[in-house]
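protien #1 (seq + structre)
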Amino acid sequence: MTRGIVTAVVLAPLCFVGLVAYEVLSGKAFEPHKTGCAEATGFAGGRMPEEATDKKCVDDGGWLDQGYTVESRMPREDVAAKLLKAFPRTRQLPDSYEWDLEFTNSQETDRPAGGASHIELGVDYEEDGTASVTLRAFNV
């Protein structure tokens, strides 16, 4: 009877450690997954603009880093001003080759509130008068 209890006490933690090691080494523990938009935008030091719709927020961080991707739609009118208000530690870049508008956290400032070391905001104008907004916030 005592031998069975000792075996269980020894094997249970070993099984747990083995399971955790499998999850970490296989990468399954760090696959992108849905998360709350408040968590994702808070990590970027901002908040979701009130006008945003079709919100999709993903935690795509890994073992040693943290990262989020947020996609949404907004009315095109005054989108730059609304994004600067929602993410005050960002600045609009004068030129962008990938987006219609692009913002990033200012390199002259400390980390934005929330902990991300880098923030990228990209805006693509849609034909229906909306703007497709992609936020990427991460640590490097």
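ok now protien #2
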Amino acid sequence: MAGLIALGIGLGAEKLGRTISEKRLERKEKKAIAQHEATYGSSSSAPPPPMTTRERQSKTNKKRQDAQRELDAARQGQSSAPQYERRRSVSMERVSEDEPPPPSYDDVVRQDGKRT
């Protein structure tokens, strides 16, 4: 029972700490935006105002979702041909080229035996 109480207090403290740090971060961002406005005003040649954490997180999440979507699409296109067919086609391309195929293991072993 005491463990459950301690666990509940720990989780509550963690949530409270997260809330406090979020509020602190929001105040810091508001201060940075206000400072940017005071320095540059509404000049068109001024650098863009600092991004807020939420904007940064949403941008990161959007990039992550786009990358995941592209990866899923690539996997769908890749899985249309079975793995063994792709390997066979690569080996067939190697045979169809003008260069001779590499020597077999048995041929190499026989040649090494003759040298000694």
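The chain has a mean pLDDT of 79.
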